[in-house]
Amino acid sequence: MHNKTRVLVVDDSALVRSLLAEIINRERDMECVGAAKDPISAREMIRDLNPDVITLDVEMPRMDGIDFLGRLMRLRPMPVLMISSLTEHGADITLRALEMGAVDFVAKPRIGVANGLQELASDIVEKIRVAAVAQVQRLPGTYKASPVAGAVLSRPAASMPAQTARVAQRPAHRLGVLGGMAGGAGAEPAGLTGKLAPLANRSASAAELAALPAGAALGPLSSEVLIAIGASTGGTEAIREVLGHLPADSPAIVITQHMPAGFTANFAARLNSLCRVRVKEAEHGERLLPGHAYIAPGGKQFYIKRLPSYYVAMVSDGPAVNRHKPSVQVLFESVALQAGRHALGIMLTGMGGDGASAMRQMRAAGSYNYVQDQASCVVFGMPREAIAQGAADEVLPLTQIAPALVERLRIYAQQYSQRHSNSIAK
Fold first, then answer.
1. C-alpha angle 94-296-134 in degrees, rounded to nearest 5
2. Whether 393 is catalytic
3. Which of 186, 206, 243, 278 has the most CB atoms lying inside 10 A of its own CB?
């Protein structure tokens, strides 16, 4: 029995194999047990050496990394860290690898590989540590993109786990932080008088959630309602699972996924081709619109600002927070302050605790929060910390988050329509 994480390096470059082995062997808790120049050699080493984690290059002779990854995940699923070139093509391939089950990736420099990899050493070993404890599995209910852009394949109702966990309820009185948009601090939002009534204190059954029409319009909602999502390791596919089951008239959605510069635009474009809502990389100063999802640009901080009648995206080159840029903490703190009780928060799979305390601030300000459960997480770090800090209203399997969110939004829409009808009658 060994105490160190056993790592197999697979790369066609002898220089990269040597550098990665050196970086790994410097750490007390891991060792490079082998280095293969191509996937064919790697197959034998996997059988003989039984590694805990594989680092895998994308472009190699005899069989490329993506083909090898696909076969590996079908026959012997195990944690894989992709080593990808920082190019547009490399970003597309990396996202495909994450979809197929890779835990994470490191962007390999195009020039100055030796110095570049040494500069990335701490990032590489940290991601190997995360991969070593990751739950490697096919995402439940994963769908594939339709040949028609924007189409989504519906998931069978039977794939939804029935169990949910409801955590301690907040007090019935829910206070907004900034009051109404049009009326200033302390004022009631135009067309949305009184607090948003909470749903009954129960979780919907799988059958009830499955009965909701897939993609059916929600109906009119206050433009102040906002959805905020945070994720890290394993989050690209978790975000796709959530967004892919939201209707086209969903409220504006703001998302921070830990990802370096050069990858988020491709990530947004990929989601846009799969979802009913329009998905794009956030731009500084743009108005946040219903039916749109905005991805934090890699290497930047993303937060929101409230103007008299709408929200705008704010993108800055501020410092890393919790070692992350973009940081979920930065986004969620702004949502707590700017959206208050009109927000719905979602914390998905990820290592560490980024955003957990800010999600607690959101809940204190009146938001309703969903947290992914341990069984469906690739890494149960950020969700666990959010639960520990009292930030969660509901802890759900990944496949139940979107249906539960839609159920709540439909109730909000009904309440909004009823209040609007009553105001006209008066």
1. 50
2. no
3. 243
